[in-house]
Specification:
The chain is α/β, with parallel strands linked by helices. The chain has a single domain, classed as 3-Layer(aba) Sandwich (Carbamate kinase). The protein has a 9-stranded mixed β-sheet with strand order 4-3-5-2-1-6-10-11-9, sandwiched between helices. A two-stranded antiparallel sheet has the order 7-8. The longest helix has 25 residues. It starts with 7 loop residues before the first strand and ends with a strand.
């Protein structure tokens, strides 16, 4: 086995990724495939925390744009991430990965309440920890939550799973001439106005020097190759 470049990671997984080819909800085949990818790196000894989005069910910003109260709308979005967390936990446990789901909103009958020391202890014991409900506060995205949790667990890198293999000069799904960056500095992302994540999340990463890797979660084996140090996707740091 190749030596590991990263031993503790924060994986940011969007809710939309769980849809597969569907327009809404969760595709069981897709989430099972992700579970296998996560299992492979867990068996390598990598400590894995996962922050999961809820956009496959509900987006707080979208609800607010349609006239809902922003705080209530964001609360609904955070609950959607708990639904996704339960689904991912189920998929991981079906492939024999020891998992803990923690929520920043107290829902004690279905998952643990987030206690960071306990989350870190779970990681040290080899359990995959799913961190749901964002930051537990409205007006903050799950990208910001992922950055915050990554810093709290002292992750060596934040790995952001997307539908494309990195950061491009333009949207590769719309522009065939778009080219991929292999590496970027934080300043290059800002000056180039590149859409890596929301500015609150990105600034937090920059100030605390948390490197970010953006990659295509649907590329088989890509996550394992990142852990082994291969240049996959785009590295920002």
């Amino acid at each position: 086995m190749k030596p590991l470049k990263y031993h503790r990671i924060l994986l940011k997984l969007s809710g939309e990724a769980l849809m597969g080819n569907r327009q809404f909800g969760i595709d069981p085949e897709t989430i099972h495939r992700y579970a296998l990818e996560i299992r492979d790196i867990a068996r390598m000894g990598v400590e894995i925390a996962i922050v999961i989005g809820g956009g496959n069910f509900f987006r707080g910003v979208q609800g607010a744009s349609q006239g809902m109260d922003r705080s209530q709308s964001d609360n609904m979005g955070m609950l959607a991430t708990v639904i996704n967390g339960l689904a991912l936990q189920n998929s991981l446990e079906r492939v024999e990965v020891h998992t803990r789901l923690q929520s920043a909103i107290e829902i004690q009958s279905v998952c643990e309440t987030l206690i960071m020391r306990r989350a870190i202890r779970h990681l040290e014991k080899g359990r995959v920890v799913i961190l749901a409900a964002g930051t537990g506060n409205p007006y903050f995205t799950t990208d910001t939550a992922a950055t915050l949790r990554g810093l709290e667990i002292k992750a060596e890198v934040m790995i952001k799973a997307t539908r494309v293999n990195g950061i491009y000069t333009a949207d590769p799904e719309k522009d065939a001439t778009a080219t991929r960056y292999t590496t970027l500095t934080y300043e290059e992302v800002i000056t180039g106005r590149l859409n890596v994540m929301d500015m609150t999340a990105f600034t937090l990463s920059e100030e605390n020097k948390l490197p970010i890797i953006v990659f295509n979660i649907n590329e088989s084996g890509a996550l394992k190759r990142i852990i082994e140090g291969e240049a996959v996707g785009t590295l920002v740091g």
